[in-house]
Amino acid sequence: MSTPDPIRPALLEVLARRALTEDAARPEAVERLHERGGRTAREQVAALVDPGSFVEYGRFVTAAQEDKRSMDDLLDRTVADGIVGGLATIGGRSVAVLSYDYLVMAGTQGMRGHRKTDRLLDVVERLALP
């Protein structure tokens, strides 16, 4: 039996960074939202689209506040700059979806989040998506 190749450091870093963007990385905030009857942005998107079809744009973006906050704080508190958006299918039909993440700085919309929205709207127009 051969041993599997170890995960390359760059891939390991991407996987770790991706884990920080998941709701599971913010259990207390998610629990408080659920107690109020809310759903996270990722839960909203998952409830709307076909399972496994969502391809997120700009998942690793953080708020443009490097001069005010540490990178660890930005990664922890400004996930995707508060906007979860991308392409998916609903009933097998291609669509664009976007949801504001109110767990990120109470839904504040940052400069990078606006760029993500603009990019997604450009894709919507170019591909004539709903």
Fold and architecture overview:
With 130 residues, this protein is α+β, with helices and mostly antiparallel strands. It is 42% helix and 15% strand. The chain has five helices and three strands, in the order H-H-H-E-H-E-E-H. The chain has a three-stranded antiparallel beta sheet, with helices on both faces. It is globular, with a radius of gyration of 16 Å.
Radius of gyration: 16 Å
Low-confidence stretches: none
CATH domain class: Alpha Beta
Query: How would you name the CATH homologous superfamily?
Result: 2-enoyl-CoA Hydratase, Chain A, domain 1
Q: How many structurally independent domains?
A: 1
What fold name stands as the CATH topology? 2-enoyl-CoA Hydratase, Chain A, domain 1
Largest sheet, in brief, is: 3 strands, antiparallel
* Overall number of strands: 3
Report strand %. 5-15%
Shape: globular
